[in-house]
Design a protein that fits this description.
By secondary structure, the chain is an alpha+beta fold. It has helices at 76-97, 104-110, 121-136, 164-171, 202-216, 307-329; strands at residues 44-50, 53-62, 65-73, 116-118, 180-182, 187-189, 222-226, 229-233, 241-247, 250-260, 263-269, 274-277, 280-283, 286-287, 292-293, 297-304, 336-341, 346-348. The structure holds adenosine monophosphate and magnesium ion.
Length: 362
C-alpha cells in the first residue's frame, strides 16, 4: 500500500539511517500553548563557524511548544533573514489552525451542520491529509476526537474523571469519515455537533512549510523542529543531523539519537501533557475507539520523507500500540518507526533492525 500524501510538501530524497548512537543528555521541556506569539526577545540566537560556513540556530516558542531552526550558509545576516521568514511561516500556520484562539479552524468548527463551507485551499489540503491518516490507521488518527478533549482536561487545576455516559455522548460526534473534503472547490462539510482539532498534525505541516521556505531561499543544509516534529535538510557541516528521542519516563533524558540526512523524525508520547489521579496517568492522546487516553505506546517515533503525514501517523501509533502499529508502518513506503510499548520494550521497523538502538527503555 502506498499512502496518498495529498500532495503535501516537497518529498526529500530518502537517505538510509546511519549508525545509531545512544547517549544520555538533556532535552528541552515543552511548554503550554501561549495566548499569542512570543515576542522576539524570547528567541535565542547562536552561531557556529566552520571554515567559511556559518550555522545560525534560533530557539524559542511557537505553536504551544518549543521550536528550533538551524540553517547553514556563508553570511550570518542573510541566514537570519531566511530563518526569520521560516519562523513567520510557523507562526502563520499556527494562526490558521490553532483552536486556542479564533482561527480559520475555529470558524469552520462553528459552522458544523451548515453544509459545505468555503475554506482556504490550505485548510482543504490539511484536512484531506488528516482524513487519509485516519483511513491508513483504521481511525486511530481521528481529528474529530475533539469533543472528548474537555473530558480529559490536563490543564485543569483539579482534573476529574468523566463518567461513561459523558464519554459515550461525546463519541457520537467522533468519526473522521463524516468529514467531507472537496479539494477542487475548497469546501469542507462537518455534520452538526462535530468539531476538529489538528493538534496531532499541524506542527508537522508547519515544519514542512517552514522547510519549504528555507529551500526556496537557497538553503541546502538546515533543520526545522517544532515540538517533537523535525525535518532535516542536507547535513550539519559534514555530518548527519542528530535527532534525539526522549526517554518517555524521564523526559529530561534521551534514550537514542538518530543520525538523519534529508528526513523527518516525528515523536509522540504519553508524557508530553497529562494529569495523574491515584497514580494513574491520563494524557493528551485519545483513543477514538474507547474515548479514553490511549494505552498503545509510551512513545512513538516515525521517520519518513514528510513531516505532515508522519506527524499524524506518530500520534496514531500511540493509540494502536507496537503490534498493530508496526503492521501499518511496514505497509508504508519509506517510513520507519521506533515504538516504545507500555512495558518499555522498544520495537523497531524492518529498516532499523541493524541500527543498534536499545531494546528497552527504563
Ligand atoms: P502529537 O504531539 O502530534 O502526538 O499530537 C497530540 C495532539 O493530537 C493532542 O494534544 C491532541 O491535540 C491531538 N489528538 C489527540 N488524540 C488524537 C487522535 N486520536 N487523533 C488525532 N489527534 C489527536
Ligand atoms: Mg502527531
Amino acid at each position: 500500500m502506498r499512502a496518498d500524501r495529498g500532495g503535501s510538501g516537497r518529498v526529500l530524497r530518502f537517505a538510509p539511517l546511519l549508525a545509531m548512537l545512544t547517549l544520555a543528555g538533556r532535552a528541552r521541556a515543552h511548554q503550554e500553548p501561549p495566548p499569542a506569539h512570543p515576542v522576539d526577545d524570547d528567541i535565542t540566537r547562536t552561531s557556529v563557524v566552520q571554515g567559511t560556513d556559518v550555522l545560525r540556530e534560533w530557539r524559542g516558542g511557537v505553536m504551544g511548544t518549543s521550536f528550533q531552526i538551524e540553517a547553514i550558509g556563508k553570511d550570518a545576516a542573510e541566514i537570519d533573514r531566511v530563518i526569520g521568514l521560516a519562523l513567520d511561516e510557523l507562526r502563520r500556520v499556527e494562526d490558521v489552525f490553532t483552536v486556542w484562539r479564533e482561527s480559520e479552524l475555529t470558524r469552520l468548527n462553528a459552522r458544523a451542520g451548515q453544509g459545505a463551507v468555503p475554506v482556504s485551499s490550505e485548510m482543504a489540503l490539511l484536512l484531506g491529509i488528516s482524513v487519509e491518516c485516519g483511513r491508513v490507521t483504521n481511525g486511530a488518527f481521528d481529528v474529530t476526537y475533539f469533543p472528548l478533549r474537555p473530558l480529559w482536561n490536563y490543564k485543569a487545576e483539579h482534573p476529574t474523571l468523566p463518567s461513561e455516559e459523558q464519554i459515550q455522548a461525546a463519541l457520537k460526534f467522533v468519526d473522521y469519515r463524516r468529514i467531507v473534503v472537496d479539494r477542487q472547490n475548497s469546501t469542507v462539510e462537518l455534520p452538526s455537533g462535530f468539531s476538529i482539532d489538528l493538534g496531532g498534525i499541524a506542527k508537522g505541516y508547519g515544519v514542512d512549510r517552514a522547510m519549504d521556505i528555507l529551500l526556496a531561499q537557497g538553503i541546502h543544509n538546515g533543520l526545522v523542529q517544532a515540538g517533537g516534529d523535525t525535518k532535516a535538510l542536507g547535513r550539519k557541516f559534514d555530518k548527519p543531523w542528530q535527532i534525539a528521542i526522549k526517554n518517555p519516563r524521564h523526559s529530561d533524558e534521551v534514550f537514542a539519537v538518530l543520525p538523519v540526512v534529508n528526513q523527518c523524525v516525528q515523536t509522540s508520547g504519553d508524557y508530553e501533557r497529562f494529569f495523574e489521579i491515584d497514580g494513574q496517568r491520563y494524557h493528551h492522546i485519545i483513543d477514538p475507539r474507547t474515548g479514553r487516553p490511549s494505552a498503545g505506546c509510551m512513545s512513538a517515533t516515525v521517520i519518513g520523507p514528510e513531516a505532515t503525514f508522519d506527524d499524524g501517523i506518530a500520534t496514531a501509533m500511540c493509540v494502536l500500540g507496537p503490534e498493530a502499529g508496526m503492521a501499518i508502518i511496514e505497509q508504508l513506503d519509506r517510513v520507519e518507526a521506533v515504538l516504545v510499548g507500555m512495558d518499555g520494550r522498544v520495537h523497531l521497523s524492518s529498516g532499523l533492525q541493524k541500527a543498534g538502538l536499545p531494546s528497552e527503555v527504563r
